[in-house]
Fold these 2 entries.
Entry 1:
Amino acid sequence: MSEILEERHTIALLVDNEPGVLARVIGLFSGRGYNIESLTVSEVDTIKGYSRITIVTSGTEMVIQQIKALLNRLVPVHEVHDLSIEGPHLERELALIKVVNTGEQRIEAMRIADMFRARAIDSTLTSFVFEVTGSPRKVNAFIELMGGLGDIEVCRGGVVAIARGSEIELDTPN
Amino acid sequence: MRNAEYQTRKPEDCMSGAAIIVKALQDQGVEVIFGYPGGAVLPLYDELFKTNNLRHILVRHEQAAVHAAEGYARSTGKPGVVLVTSGPGATNAVTGLTDALMDSIPIVCLTGQVPTHLIGTDAFQEADTTGITRACTKHNYLVKKSEDLADVMHEAFYVAGNGRPGPVVIDLPKDILFEEGPYFTLENKRPCAYKPQIMEDQQQIEKAVKLLADAEQPIIYGGGGLINSGTRASQLLREFADLTGYPVTLTLMGLGAFPASNKHFLGMLGMHGTYEANLAMHQCDVMFNIGARFDDRVTGRIKDFSPNSTKIHVDIDPSSINKNVKVDLPIIGDAALILEQMIRVWKEKGYKRNDGMLSEWWQKIEVWRDKKCLDFKQDSKIIKPQYAIRRLFEKTQKTDAYITTEVGQHQMWAAQYYGFEQPNRWMTSGGLGTMGYGLPAAMGVQIAHPDALVIDIAGEASILMNIQELSTISQYNLPVKAFIVNNQWMGMVRQWQELNHGSRYSQSYTESLPDFVKLADSFGGTGMVAETVDQLDSVIDAMLKTEGFFLADIRVAKEENCFPMIPSGAAHNEMILGLGDSLESPTTTKAGMALV
């Protein structure tokens, strides 16, 4: 049955940047038992006061449809775009990974970081902090590799996403 | 803020926050507020003291204020307005707000709050009202600047009443009530961010009409959306049923949207719906859901819900579509507007009522009807609850009465045995199932319709949950009638314990009930008891003749169960008509036991 297939969707919202708006969005997910895999939020228009929220969630088609309808119903939410079905889009994530190791493993870590275009932004004689950006898959792969080269601490920024092409999808209205 | 126009507009006047609120209420056409004062809202009460145009009804508990406002709203179609203080005032209102959210009732609830500089300090009577009510309101506001106040007031009414209606809370810090701010009129308010989505897709409507026209076993399944849409929706539904000749069933919230006496009406559907309505739902080939939400009380086991039908769903709220039941043809819009277009399309395309084709379907329905699933035997001196409500109906049906209920068996019996001919006459707590709803709701209805006959069909357990409102009823001389179907049990709890828990009646019996006659007397009303069948009519007559408020204590058969019933977790075709009934699976399954 295709109905019980869970799909991963990336949803972009344009919301009023006002107190409580994030709580409304999150409350909707927690109150109805939906998943949030990743959530990023930041103001995108300081003059007009808009924030953009990117949510990665997974669920059946019916659940995803519900989530979008419920998000649309919130008063401070202006736009809801399901980037996963609206066409090709880009997803990027920033992560900081601290890896603690010495000797040969240190050299290997640098080599792999180079391949992933990760930058070492902090270093001691026994550790690095790498900054890596890329698709969630690339970041996953990098973290997995680093995990084999020492003790690691991971901080991920969550997915930000935008549609490809010349169309401006989430315009900030006046 | 973002809007250039909004920044440059000229306020009508400058005044205190409290005055802005009162002015906004008046501009919104508000006539009545249900409330209870307290420290945080004193400036607003001071302002109310100075005005003559707003009537304030002093309740005895904030929950009752919201239920009264719900009764007012549901019987008039206008939003109900509530005013409570901070902290306990706001938390007491939460049950009412949740009730209004579940049943889509437009409410604007003003809550007091500690002054802005004390917010977050655990100040006296502080509660995080916007935090607490976020999940039980359609939207809420915390007003932190007096220049926002007028806009928020107007916007709150817009949000409460447009799209799918619901409760809106405005949290008002005390300093904002004192502070001077600009007043903007309704015409001059900031543009509202809230825009209900409507997709009245003409093609979808045409498709829907075609589906219905081609149907061999159609059914119209209407809900509370018809009531919220206004009386026109009910007229149009009648017209559509006449035009098509199709059977109509209604949900608990929809009762009154189609006349109970109409021969097309199959009665209520769902857990305690009629046999004919549920079986027609089960066997239909095209289902036309207008303004209902496939609630679990209606659908029974989802997997086997109306398995062979093509489903059309009209709802004003896109999130109702495909929530519980996957539908084939969704239409997002207002019930009356959609019905109007459907009727137009039906006529334009020249579809004809085909009684010949329908006769087979109606014959089937008549066979189900012949089961007479609502029959009961009044064969002893003890009053059957069904008989009591049937008699009440027979004696009041010509008086255009307004009926509210509490929650439980009596509520279902009222839905089954009281026939509603018009919308807005039936006020009940459907979604949340709030015991204690009926008496305050009746108060609100009576305020809106001072000369009407307003009856709370109550259970003795439920009515005690908000019995303090007798004091309000007494203060305002409201001639509310409470018709207490008294079986000394929490009847529905007892019934479920009997059916699902081996008759172990854990905590469902009320030991020390009050003497309702003395209770009525102590608040300045009248009370009477009917203990046997021959006393019933005279008590009803006395109740209808009495000018003031009246408590009728109707002692009914104690262990009567409410049937027919779809056991929880069962499907529409697995109804029990009564105990000892031999339908396929009369017992509740294990999975069903876990359901409520």
Entry 2:
Amino acid sequence: MSRPLLYLSYQQDTALLNTPGKRFWTSVLGIVAVSLPFLLTDDLLVVLATACVASIGAIGLNLVTGYAGQVSLGHAFFLAIGAYTAAALSGDPDSTRLIGFGITSVPIWLLAAGLVAGLAGLIVAPLAARLRGLYLAVVTLGLVFIGEHVFKHWRDLTGGVGVGRPAAVPELFGIQFAVDGSLFTKAQKLYLLMLVLLVIFGVLARNLVRSRIGRALAAVRDRDLAAEVIGVDVTRYKMIAFAVSSFYAGVAGALLYVMIGFVEPGSFNLGMSVQYIAMVLIGGVATISGSVLGALFITLLPRVTRELPAVLPFISSSSAAGGITVFQVETILYGLLIIAFLIFEPRGLFGIWIRLRTYWKSWPFSH
Amino acid sequence: MNEFVATVVRGLGNGSIYALLALGFVIVYKSMRVISFAQPAFMMAGALLTGYLVLSMNFFVAVLVALLLTGLLGAVVERLALRPMIGKPVFVIAIITLGVDIVIRTVVNSFIGLDIRQMGDPWGLRQVDVLGAKIDQRHLATLVTTLIVVAALFAFYRWSRTGLAMRAASSDQEVALAQGVSVGRVFSLSWALAAALAGLAGVFLSTGIGLEQNLWLTALKALPVIILGGLDSLGGAVVAGLTIGVIEALVGSYGDNLHPVFGGDFFLVVPYLLMLLVVLVRPYGLFGTREVERI
């Protein structure tokens, strides 16, 4: 048996699962994740499937904002592009109201959604090459508003405000994911599909960031001038960061509304961008597993606060009854969590995990 | 011609609101090098407070008291949520202000409710004839008040001792500290000023049409304004605010004649499109200071 923390090569050190502990716990996590559909009720599974999709989106944002340090408030714009590409590709070709091509195979519309969004990211990237810091944040915020306007008015594609259109139809090798089957329910199938996709895109991202590209992105983030001096082509890597991040956003956008089966153009607003920023910050900046944790946290938060009225009688579940409503508690909690995490644990949930890990690793000694 | 004059005055009126909001952003930026996304919340808070106070007192007194309270709120927020973060990356601080915005706005919204709340202002939707054009009184009132406030603000920065301290802290914090300027107080004061200016903008925004929950989106139009004017330029904020207001109004009135795409509510995205165009040519806005980096 080899010694666990002795690395003889750089490859060993940067390997995905470089310690026995990681290997063990990742297998446990995998087994738990796969067995969840048989343990949980369908409504919880739908929430978890949404969390998986949100994780893909959060990973995308983390690539550009966490790893490359380019603050983007325009994530909702790219999510929207992905959502509508996928919805249009898999839409009903006979519909007179909406654009549709009838291609329902998951890999095709998923890749197309990612590529179209990625292309949009490439078009936006020159802005990032010219702008720094908060200027960039505000300009990408402008994208969200312009996109919202276009999507609200392009009725053939989006169905218009308040009407919307059916979301992408998931179908693979003849299996319809969005319909209850004889073996699995709709929620179980969707959860498993999203879980598999999250694992694929998560591992891809993890591999990207531990490669040459990932190190170049980190160099650009830490000091772009210094990066340029050591030979990193800053403009090129900013473009790569935006393209890949938008690709992930497109994929997440395509999948995000599959669970509900319906897309409304008004939903891709500033609030959605902020939500993804919150996932990245609460999860942990520049970590892939942190993005997943943050997405889980933010997606499960409404679900948890909905249980509050049973515990705390002064919170009412409808606005008619007076007092504080669940929705208000949820929003306030969401805002306070963002503030509290940034002040007290800037490394997010991932940071808490690291602290716990170090504590138990050296237990019972404090150092 | 009459319609043109009316459009321009409407644009100047709305533009003054953007200018007031943008000034708040710039004041905070100058002191902390951070964009405060909490401005919409302060705007709503100022308008809401006025709406409540006006029930028991004169409108002008109500506005003054409301602005004082909003300023106080700004200072308290700065002390609680922002002060612990000094020295952290600006992006992190900016996101904290987003959190502050969400919290304050939810509380304010729960007080506004679903109805439209009237401000009890003396103008309402009455119009006056100027050169034959029908002009809303509220737009004129907004423009005049903004000009007075801007003049006072510039005088304050130029000639008062505190204004000098604020300029010093903005140009170099450490040197200012060494000269005996209390940078902490400058931060508090900046936030209070910014919050009060946003509150004033909120009051004028909701005169006539009333206060409702979705009004906060207007405050975000100050973001293209500050990018256009340059993040650290007070004068730029005023000029860009008025310009964007007028262009927006012109597109709103005449966009339809050019092409149906520019009609309807297209004018709502005009500020953002302008911003994109300008930053492609001038990354630091029209009047912003170019960042010079030493290697």
